[in-house]
Amino acid sequence: MAEDADPEPASRERVRARIVAVAADLLIQGGPGAVTTRAVTAAAGVQAPTIYRLFGDKAGLLDAVTEHGFATYLARKRPPKPGCDPVEALRAGWDLHIEFGLANPALYTLMYGHPRPGVTSPAAAAALDMLRAHVRSIATAGRLRLREEQAVQLLQASGSGTVLALLAVPQEQRDPHLSPLAREACIAAVTTGHTALPAPGVVGAATALRAELSSATALSEAERGVLAEWLDRIAAPTA
């Protein structure tokens, strides 16, 4: 029997989670077009007003499914471990990202294929923070060629672009070498080729210091802000 009353808070969360899981399954099986109010209510055992109360409309439901997708993705990701090779950790993270996208095409397209400027969900922000942690560990090791945020944006754009490009091609026609080629091109653009830099030069030194600047407690917040601006200018690649 379908539920038609507004549930209590704890029950409400269970109902919400069930609806999101059902909508995600419908998305995976049939794409966004399969996520209709009729299909979701039938599969979840609820009535349409429940969906409207919990999500507002279909767009709100799809936003919740997107959040669910990022949470599923993050459950498989791990921040870089202390002492590990930060570039190898980045390489492994890239491969995991590509694997997730190709295994979940409809969900991945919903997550990355329809960006809305200025709108970032908490789970999407957490995924980006995970990438920032990888880049920060490379910067701390003195092996980052670019400014941290520039490296993060390049890696995010290249990784998601690679997945979407592969998804646009029939599976049997996909080039298995495309992702490794894109990955290594990005790594070459973002990192130095050495495990350690005894004399990293002014750019490498500025990048490494910028990565650790938040721990410079001898400086005031304003002083750290000024120094951060100077270090970013030093680390920026010349035109």
From TrEMBL:
UniProt keywords, alphabetically: DNA-binding
Gene Ontology MF terms in the entry: DNA-binding transcription factor activity; transcription cis-regulatory region binding
Gene3D superfamilies linked to this entry: Tetracycline Repressor, domain 2
Protein known as: TetR family transcriptional regulator
UniProt DNA-binding residue ranges: 36-55
PROSITE patterns listed in its UniProt record: HTH_TETR_2 (PS50977)
Family annotation (InterPro entries): Homeodomain-like_sf (IPR009057), HTH-type_TetR-like_transc_reg (IPR050109), HTH_TetR (IPR001647), Tet_transcr_reg_TetR-rel_C_sf (IPR036271)
UniProt signal peptide: none
Top-level lineage group: Bacteria
Taxonomic lineage from the root: Bacteria, Bacillati, Actinomycetota, Actinomycetes, Micromonosporales
Domain HTH tetR-type: 13-73
